């Protein structure tokens, strides 16, 4: 990264600090590229508008923000708070059996992904609340897809800047877990069946421009099936090369959950992974996703639907550039 870019980022973070202190919240940065803890807020539908705005900014700057000690929050409170940050989507385009407002995550989503990237209107953010936790393990890790893009050497940037990827909900990551019992295997198969009960395929630019920050990020993750411009045999190695750069430990932020914790991630600037290291213990988290825009590549071209209509699942947000990111 150039010195100018670092200066700009430092200036932006300074400007953001004024917004936080005017709103009476504290934002503690927890990593160089990603992650911060916000304190001074009691989450719910009655968060003042100024605080909600400051939280939106902290999210854009830090990509993931966590709140602790929110034990008072229930599903309705989580939903009412979500509405202050955007327009909640349905829980999922195809998974309807796990609640009508929130998606219940049971177990852990242990593969790197950006949420619901197989539709055209990829959600802008997810709000996750711990409901039942194992006594060990079960952390969630996020990776900054902006940092990964910014770290690409020029020849790799040239390679990805014009590349498109096909995302599909027919993912192939439900391989049998050798430790899973019969019931767990049945649960996974049922879930996969529901997940794929309608087919969604979308072409997204591999490099998207964030509508609120103008930052470029890599839009990939486990729903990607193909780079249509390349041969099938070339897909795996290039996909893995880029995923390895995204998930470099320096670009990640890991959170060990306690009850009362809430995490929000900018789904336009991150991937995440739920770590399945808690044996057979119960783990349950409740998620709300917020409507996002249709991604736009560097050349101004928008993502294109190949199959599936997600309009029942989510509106399309008209996003605007945030003040401190003004060009
Ligand atoms: O299991 C986890 O920690 C992550 C769950 C997840 O992928 C999600 O909530 O979107
Ligand atoms: Fe997820």
UniProtKB/TrEMBL annotation:
<dbReference type="GO" id="GO:0005737">
    <property type="term" value="C:cytoplasm"/>
</dbReference>
<dbReference type="GO" id="GO:0016706">
    <property type="term" value="F:2-oxoglutarate-dependent dioxygenase activity"/>
</dbReference>
<dbReference type="InterPro" id="IPR051323">
    <property type="entry name" value="AtsK-like"/>
</dbReference>
<dbReference type="InterPro" id="IPR042098">
    <property type="entry name" value="TauD-like_sf"/>
</dbReference>
<keyword id="KW-0223">Dioxygenase</keyword>
<dbReference type="InterPro" id="IPR003819">
    <property type="entry name" value="TauD/TfdA-like"/>
</dbReference>
<dbReference type="Pfam" id="PF02668">
    <property type="entry name" value="TauD"/>
</dbReference>
<protein>
    <submittedName>
        <fullName>Putative dioxygenase</fullName>
    </submittedName>
</protein>
<keyword id="KW-0560">Oxidoreductase</keyword>
<feature type="domain" description="TauD/TfdA-like">
    <location>
        <begin position="27"/>
        <end position="289"/>
    </location>
</feature>
<comment type="similarity">
    <text>Belongs to the TfdA dioxygenase family.</text>
</comment>
<dbReference type="GO" id="GO:0046872">
    <property type="term" value="F:metal ion binding"/>
</dbReference>
<keyword id="KW-0479">Metal-binding</keyword>
<keyword id="KW-0408">Iron</keyword>
């Amino acid at each position: 990264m150039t010195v100018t870019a670092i200066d700009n980022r430092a200036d932006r973070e300074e400007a953001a600090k004024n917004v936080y202190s005017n709103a009476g919240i504290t934002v503690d940065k927890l990593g160089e590229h990603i992650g911060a803890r916000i304190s001074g807020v009691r989450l719910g539908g009655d968060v003042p508008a100024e605080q909600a705005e400051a939280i939106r900014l902290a999210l854009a700057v830090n990509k993931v923000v966590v709140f602790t000690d929110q034990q008072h929050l229930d599903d309705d409170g989580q939903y009412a708070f979500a509405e202050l940050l955007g327009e909640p989507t349905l829980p999922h385009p195809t998974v309807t059996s796990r609640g009508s407002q929130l998606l219940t995550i049971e177990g852990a989503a242990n593969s790197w992904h950006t949420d619901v990237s197989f539709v055209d209107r990829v959600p802008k953010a997810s709000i996750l609340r711990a409901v039942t936790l194992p006594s060990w393990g079960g952390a969630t890790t996020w990776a900054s897809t902006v940092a990964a893009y910014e770290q690409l050497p020029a020849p790799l940037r040239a390679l990805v800047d014009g590349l498109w990827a096909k995302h599909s909900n027919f993912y192939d990551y439900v391989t049998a877990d050798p430790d899973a019992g019969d019931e767990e295997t049945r649960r996974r198969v049922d879930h996969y069946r529901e997940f794929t009960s309608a087919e969604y395929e979308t072409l997204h630019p591999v490099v998207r421009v964030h509508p609120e920050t103008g930052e470029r990020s890599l839009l990939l993750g486990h729903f990607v099936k193909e780079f249509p411009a390349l041969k099938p045999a070339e897909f795996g190695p290039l996909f893995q090369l880029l995923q390895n750069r995204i998930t470099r430990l320096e670009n990640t932020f890991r959170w060990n959950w306690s009850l009362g914790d809430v995490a929000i991630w900018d789904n336009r600037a991150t991937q995440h992974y739920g770590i399945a290291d808690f044996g057979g213990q119960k783990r349950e988290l409740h998620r709300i996703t917020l409507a996002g825009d249709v991604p736009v590549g560097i050349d101004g071209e928008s993502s294109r639907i190949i199959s599936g209509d997600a309009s029942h699942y989510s509106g399309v947000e008209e996003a605007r550039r945030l003040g401190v990111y003004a060009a």
